[in-house]
Write a structure and sequence with these properties.
Largest sheet: 2 strands, antiparallel
Helix content: 40-55%
Low-confidence stretches: 4-51
Number of helices: 15
Radius of gyration: 21 Å
Strand content: under 5%
Number of strands: 2
Shape: globular
């Protein structure tokens, strides 16, 4: 089964790599990312004068509701912003609604995701003033409280390290993580339909890659702030739009014959996929969760490089070309660097500044690892059962 061709990308060199270990007390041989290659001397060399303008940016449409909460919430959002009582939604009047595992609750996770998405790209037909509507923020607070309770039940709280031991504690936490090896399966056994499913799941985050963690930049100071800016600069392509990781992921999606528009697969992904994104937004949008946000990023980077090598080999095994695999290739190298910066300069530096919050860093990392395990269990369990890991479009809660 063939793979649809990708659109051509502008020519350009790959990232160059080097290091100065003495600057950050890193082990000899640590690879560091230097800025992307300089732009062509003449802008016209980079893009033909008669090149077609980029298509207009369009926000995604609201997805179909998955239960009573999203049904009533979406009915509100398509109207002009207004105040409404909490008892008009089944949040307060039906507390038993939250009796089940919240991390897997389709209705709750989608409602929370939509509330958060108003701080990113929003939705077509939803007034932008809803972003800071007081009634909606009250709804979001209730959903967040339930989500945080669900995380606390699912995620064992790691021992609080001494600030100077934060980097080591992160490494030990990552090395002890368990779960099905989804990346190896994708490398060796997955068929094209399964690989596309995996990409559809990941598109919910990767099409806005780095955005949730960027909320942390204005909340940091000194060395940790510089470290996060360094990581995020690479994520955003060093100022080159075509090198942004979200843009590279769109190329991967096109190479696999998939719809690369923002939010295209929101209708299909299950609660556990939404919970991964919701945890990032929860940590990013609340200053009290800054330590958890940084720990989450560190765990994300520390578990990225090796799996992305497997994904790259998997997509090539299925017929993908260099452009289709480039997103994964970039992460093999870049994230090997980012994990050092995130663990040492970012998290280690933050724990040194705020010793009482070192435990928050470890908790955020544990949340990242736990949600990733739950996601892998869902995907692999579905495939072993011979069914899709995605939802049927328009399915309601429990489907």
């Amino acid at each position: 089964m063939g793979i649809a061709p990708v659109w051509e990308q502008p020519p350009g060199g790959r990232m160059t790599y080097g290091f100065e270990a003495s600057d950050r007390h890193e082990p000899p041989g640590t690879v560091r990312v230097h800025p992307s290659p300089p732009a062509p001397e003449h802008p016209k060399d980079a893009e033909p004068v008669n090149a077609a303008p980029p298509p207009p940016v369009r926000a995604p449409e609201l997805p179909a509701a998955r239960g009573p909460i999203t049904t009533l919430l979406f009915e509100r959002l398509v109207r002009p912003p207004h105040r409404f009582g909490l008892f008009s939604l089944p949040l307060m009047s039906f507390p038993a609604r939250f009796a089940g595992p919240v991390l897997m609750d389709e209705d709750v996770q989608l409602a929370l995701f939509v509330c958060y998405e108003l701080h990113y790209q929003g939705f077509r037909g939803v007034d932008e003033r809803w972003e800071w509507n007081l009634s909606l923020l009250e709804v979001r607070e209730i959903l967040e409280t339930r989500f945080e309770e669900g995380l606390a039940r699912a995620v064992p709280c790691p021992p609080v390290p001494r600030p100077q031991d934060t980097r080591r504690a992160l490494a030990e936490l990552v090395s002890a993580a368990e779960g099905p090896d989804l990346s190896v399966f994708l490398q060796r056994q997955a068929d094209l339909a399964q690989f596309r499913e995996f990409v559809a799941h990941r598109s919910i985050y990767h099409l806005k890659e780095a955005d949730p963690h960027t909320w942390g930049i204005p909340r940091l100071r000194d060395r940790p702030k510089a470290a996060l800016v360094e990581i995020q600069s690479d994520e955003y392509g060093g100022g080159r739009a075509e090198r942004m990781h979200s843009a590279l992921f769109r190329t991967t999606m096109r190479g696999l014959g998939m719809d690369d528009s923002y939010g295209a697969y929101l209708e299909r992904v299950p609660a556990v996929t939404l919970a991964i994104s919701n945890a990032m937004s929860l940590f990013g949008l609340h200053r009290r969760h800054l330590g958890a946000l940084l720990g989450h990023l560190a765990a994300f980077e520390m578990t990225s490089s090796v799996p992305n090598g497997y994904y790259s080999r998997g997509v090539r095994r299925l017929g993908g070309d260099e452009e289709t695999a480039r997103f994964y290739d970039e992460h093999v190298q870049a994230d090997a660097v980012h994990e050092q910066i995130a663990a040492h300069d970012l998290c280690g530096g933050f724990a040194a500044q705020y010793p009482a919050r070192a435990g928050d860093v470890l908790y955020g990392a544990a949340c990242c690892l736990t949600l990733d395990r739950l996601f892998a269990e869902h995907v692999m369990g579905s495939w072993h059962a011979g069914v899709s890991s995605l939802r049927e479009a328009g399915a309601t809660t429990g489907s």
